[in-house]
Amino acid sequence: MKKIILSVSIATLIGCVQTAPQTPFEQSGSNNSHVAMTGPQVVEWLNTLYNSKPQNCHESANQPAFLCSGVIFRVTDKKPGETHHVWNPSPTSVKNGGVSFSYLRTDSKYGRLAWGHGNGFMLYPIFGAPQDKVDLDVLCSYPIDGWTWNRTTPCGHHASYPASSQRCQSAGVTTAEQWKSVWDNSPNSHHIRQCGFDVSEATGKPAAVPFYQSVRARGMLSQNPTHFTEQNEVVVKTWPQNLQDTLPLMAFFFIAGGGNAGLPEAQGNQQDFYNSTTRRIWVPVIRLFPPSTPTSEATFQYVESDQLIKP
Q1: Which segment of the chain is annotated as a signal peptide (predicted)?
Q2: For 122, which of 25, 134, 194, 283 is 20 to 30 Å away at the CA?
Q3: pLDDT value of residue 258
């Protein structure tokens, strides 16, 4: 999608989210670090992205809403003593070609993150990322956890239910209502019977409508308290290892509340990222407050004392 971005000014791209802050992408930190956005600017943008509900970007059927709205993030789990970079794809993702993320928006929300983990990292949306960042391709979207580790490929079918679990477009599922009907009428094994909406550029077909139907289906599920506690899943094409200089990583985050158990790991990842980048790129640690009920909203907060590395 870089070809799209090169033809549109950064101001226009950021303008896809109507009220996104107009912030420079070149700033110097207090200790010669490279700062794309300050912590408060990131929070302002996250809140804007979360609360924006376009069906597509620039009123184009070829530009799905994840390009300019919502928050795409991945939970991580790094045990004490482990030395891997959490932004690198796992060996499993290298093998199967996909990395699992979640998508959070006011009309596509949930109260619990994957595996119950409490920290991870967030990506810039493609429309609005700094110009030196690579585009990551979103391949497919599941309204609820797709149990992708049990499928032939992350966006593929499950061997036990090849007809219903194949890509939604191939299964004849084109609307949120159809998807929800299949879910409701499945006698068991709902997660692996569900289809995922194909939003890959490789299909050559418009992806805005399929992605928006996935968002709508997520919204329908969230009205059920049982399903509200489980996240959705978007699969991103696996990227090369050690891409930290150009990876569109906007922030590390942790779930706020209680003892803030995810904070130390988020701080460690912030430091690791800073030390691993050529230009000492600083990104903030952000507090995420997930919605507690289907009618409440997620919020984001920047706290100076949470930063192990100062901007």
Answers
A1: 1-19
A2: 194
A3: 79
